[in-house]
Amino acid sequence: MKNIKVDIDADAKAEIIDALHQSLAETSIATLKSQTFHWNVKGMSFGALHPLFEEIYTDHFGAQDVLAERIKALDGHADGRYAEFLKRSSINESDGKLSAEAMVETLKSDQEKLSTTLRQVAELADKHGDIVTNDMAIGRAEAHDKFAWMLRAHLTE
């Protein structure tokens, strides 16, 4: 099998890889946070939130692999250290000691941040003619938009 060379300028690749690392960091922190909330949610909304939080962290766990593999396809190094993720991420950790409503509000905000980050990746990739990263980022932004909507539906107006 022949190796496929991604035909993108080296500087553009570096920019895209950096943006993908940002997405990977934020996705990884959001994965662990939603799993922490899955373990610790309680109250009358437990029955609805426990499986929703599991759906979110399961999705995000798979997304980490997709993001890291795209970094590798662009000849980058996928750094998987949580210390690095925490330095880069605009999403913060949580110990899970929150009310169910605060958990939902926090995860909703995280999904909106992830969507914004992935939209920026998509725009950057489009600017540099990287249609594969663009398509992947749009798909991920769509997933985060859906989770944000699902979480908003749990909040009272």
What is the fold's blueprint, element by element?
Elements: H1 10-40, H2 46-73, H3 82-88, H4 100-127, H5 131-152
Describe this protein's structure.
It contains 5 helices and no strands. It is an all-alpha fold and 157 residues long. The N and C termini lie far apart (56 Å).
What composes the largest sheet?
A: none
**What CATH architecture label applies?**
Up-down Bundle
CATH topology: Ferritin
Which CATH C-level class is it?
Mainly Alpha
What is the count of helical runs? 5
Summary?
74% of the residues lie in helices and 0% in strands.
Core attributes:
157 residues; mainly alpha; Ferritin
